[in-house]
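For homework, think about our next protein:
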Amino acid sequence: MLKSKKYLKLRKSGKRYEDVESNDAALITLYYFLDDCCRCISTFKELINDPTQEGGGGNATFWEREGNKIIITLQWRDDENPYKDAFEATIEELNCILDQWEELLKKMPEEIIMIRDNMIQNDSPVILEENKLISK
């Protein structure tokens, strides 16, 4: 069932996560953004919610505002096609994703699954959840 959706599986590695399986490059870009902001989520939320901020960057990603949307790209993106692996979300959606990420970081589960589905009926285009099927 997971293979029919766009997903990214993350596995705990020390105090961080590494991507272990994915079928969506945009979710990998989102993960790098989340990893960039994991120690200062409130600061990143202030920046993306401030309409005077046009964009910014972290260690691996760059984000830019386009109206009510945030576009996240990789720092090492292809100059000829800079949005190829970009992740795009509204500010509200990205706030919801950051909230989910913050809650998961408090638990530090062994695995996290990120699922992107255009049919999701909540405030987020991505669901982040603990993979409870793996043994501890």
